[in-house]
Amino acid sequence: MTVNQLSATSTDPALQVSDLCVDVDTPAGRIRLLDGVSLSVRSGERLAVVGESGSGKSVMARSILRLDDSFHLSGSIKVDGTELVGLPERRMERLRGSKVGMVFQDPLGALNPLCTIGEQVTEPLRVRGVRRPEAERAAIAILGELGVAKAAQRMRAYPHEFSGGMRQRVVLAMALIAEPDLLIADEPTTALDVRVQEQVIDLLHEVSTERDLAVILITHDLGIVAGFAERVAVMYAGRKIQDDAVGRLFAEPAHPYARGLIEAVPRLDQKMQRLVGIPGVPPHPGARPSGCAYHPRCPHRMEQCEVEVPRENPLATGGLVACHLYPADRSAQ
Ligand code: SF4
């Protein structure tokens, strides 16, 4: 059975994550990195996952592709209807690249300095048995599509001969050459200067639209989210605390943490104002506060917040929020 035959139905979302928990064993015992996260992304949709360091956003990305053997997963991760939790590693290997592509933060680290660009971009096809001439034609086409000039000649170059922005285009070509349905980009612009950051984000937007590709952009930088994503999932301390349309989240952030993140972003469309940071630091995964993990930093905390984990409830304006200020019976009215 081929990977594509593993798909369930064409109406399945590109990705459906349900109640995903991720634990890891440490010398101090087992700790929970991700706690009951659910989200879905449909074909062609661009979802940004945001949050401070340690919020669990990269753990989620790596768990979807099952990149860490040390992670213990429970819950469900379905890609085009195929359940990945518990899927044998041999089948996961076939699925990586062909169904889900991934772009990492550091393009230089993702490339082998001893192999040519051509060898590396063709590899995802070669390991699937595609003949070299055909794989090279596809590599030249995708590099050209992603803005690498004189792609045929540059196939013989090595990574050190490329600029940071060009290297990220090569990594993107490697992720896209086998035509996945879902692309996960984990902080893809962190190592790049501002001008190149913009080009890479524009390129991701373009490939998502042209290929009807579902894209998850993992970032701590809300500044790049507004022009890219349709929806935003906000993570805090291993949980998803708000999931909303990008316009609504920026205009009316419901969760106090989401509000804090947005108030800390400089706005070019408003007069000079003082930026307000969020007091305190995110908790260590092994020492998360009881109840709502945000309560020690939250200006709206109530007694209930210290003991009871808030459930995700629908907001009256659309979207979902996990906060006791929005109980189920009030939030959706
Ligand atoms: Fe603040 Fe309570 Fe809402 Fe948590 S549940 S964000 S502590 S108001």
Could you explain the architecture of this structure?
- The chain is an alpha/beta fold.
- The chain has helices at 57-64, 89-98, 107-110, 117-126, 132-145, 151-154, 164-176, 194-211, 246-251, 256-263, 303-307, 328-331; strands spanning 15-26, 29-41, 46-50, 71-79, 82-83, 100-103, 182-186, 214-219, 231-236, 239-245, 312-314, 320-322.
- The chain has an 8-stranded mixed β-sheet with strand order 6-7-8-3-9-10-12-11, with helices on both faces. A 4-stranded antiparallel β-sheet has the order 2-1-4-5, covered by helices on one side.
- The longest helix is centred in the middle third of the chain and has 18 residues, at 194-211.
- The N and C termini lie far apart (48 Å).
- The model is unreliable at 1-8 (pLDDT under 50).
- It binds iron/sulfur cluster.
- Iron/sulfur cluster is lined by residues 255-256, 292, 294-295, 298, 300-302, 305, 310, 323-325.
